[in-house]
Amino acid sequence: MKINTSRFGTIEVSEEEFIYMKGSILGFERLTRFVLLIKDDQNPLWWLQAVDDPAVAFVVINPRLIKRDYDPMVYEGDLEFLDIKDKDDIALLAIVTIRANPFRVTANLRAPLLINAANRMGNQIVLEEPSYHVQFDILDHRQELQETGNDEGKGLERLARQAYAAPA
User: Fold this and answer.
1) Which H or E element spans position 148?
2) CA-to-CA distance for 60 and 75, rounded, in angstroms?
3) pLDDT (average), residues 106-129
4) In the structure, how many helices (H) and strands (E) does the chain have?
5) DSSP 140
6) Residue-wise pLDDT tens digits, 59-96
7) What pTM was computed for the model?
8) Residue 125: partners with Cβ closer than 8 Å, 6 or more residues away
9) Closest by alpha carbon to 151, among 71, 46, 73, 34?
10) Which is more confident, 51 or 146?
């Protein structure tokens, strides 16, 4: 299927690459189909492109790359909602915001995207833990990003393998 994007032009993706938001991304309730775009394997920032709106794409990151001890309490109801039966099917992504003035790059660790890597269903969950900030400053944790390596977890690793390789 061909989809239009404002950042990468027209790209060809298969429906097997879609991530279906069973629950919604806050503020974007009308969008339910997304595709994960990875431009460069060495870049920790990926794109979550809306299939049905070329202008909507979120920059996302594996939250464990910027906060090593990120281990949110995911409620059983959230797992059941997405039919997650095995912890290896859990994939978490944090939405990144890049501000120009003053330049800041932050990740929303309070409301990550929870995705079942097995059935590709997702939902944005809101955590109750106050230590996970809505605007976690990535640049303040650059050193941690460089030292972390590639400990993504099996669910996120599976999603990355099945992602679309975005054109340069």
Assistant:
1) helix 142-148
2) 22
3) 96
4) 4, 12
5) G
6) 999 999 999 899 999 999 999 999 999 999 999 999 99
7) 0.86
8) 23, 74, 75, 78, 111, 112, 113, 114
9) 71
10) 51
Query: Which residues partner with 35 through β-bridges?
Result: 18, 49
**What does the radius of gyration of the chain's CA atoms come to, in whole angstroms?**
15
Take residue 82 and report the two structure tokens written for it: 């997405």
* Residue 46 pLDDT greater than 90, yes or no: yes
Q: Which two tokens stand for residue 142?
A: 């650059």
How far apart are alpha carbons 28 and 31 in whole angstroms? Answer: 6
Euclidean distance between the first and the last CA atom of the chain, given in angstroms as a whole number: 20
Measured between alpha carbons, how far is residue 124 from residues 27, 39, 45, 166 in Å? 11, 23, 18, 24
Q: What is the 3-state secondary structure (H, E, C) of 26-95?
A: CCCCCCCEEEEEECCCCCCCEEEEECCCCCCEEEEECHHHHCCCCCCCCCHHHHHHCCCCCHHHEEEEEE
Q: Distance (Å, rounded) from C-alpha 152 to C-alpha 88?
A: 11
Alpha-carbon gap, residue 7 to 24, rounded angstroms: 22
Per-residue pLDDT band at 112 (split at 50, 70, 90): very high
Closest CA to 135 of 101, 103, 96: 96
Q: How far apart are CA 33 and CA 104, in angstroms?
A: 29
